[in-house]
Amino acid sequence: MTMPFVATVRARQKTITLGGDSAARMLVRVEVPERWDVVRVAAPPSESVLAVKVAALQVLDPRADQRDYVMKLRGYEVLDEGLSLAMAGVTENAIFLLTRRRRRPVR
Predict the structure, then answer these.
(1) d(CA 52, CA 56)
(2) What is the distance of C-alpha 88 from the center of its chain?
(3) Quick one: which of 9, 17, 10 has its CA closest to 1?
(4) pLDDT tens-place string over residues 5-34
(5) How far apart are the first and last CA of the chain?
(6) Residue 78, SS3?
(7) According to a count of CB atoms within 10 Å of the terminal CB, is the N or C end of the chain lower?
């Protein structure tokens, strides 16, 4: 899979792959601003937003509870994470922001 330059900027080397072997996949970026980290996820358009969220959290913060995080697309929270990527309006090379549901106090 050839990916554009912007998909490689500040991202980890390994791409997370979801779905079966024969499925056509789209590439999305998942960014966690609290950790200053980015992963690429290759998933079929039929994969749920929740599956992408869980896979990204397993790599970026394995101890985190996925219920404490929200997925944002184009600045808006994806309220139904059970939707497929296609139904949520995700396109090739889209960027998800995976951020905490509530702000944490700074000490």
Answers:
(1) 6
(2) 13
(3) 17
(4) 555 556 556 777 788 776 788 888 898 888
(5) 44
(6) coil
(7) C
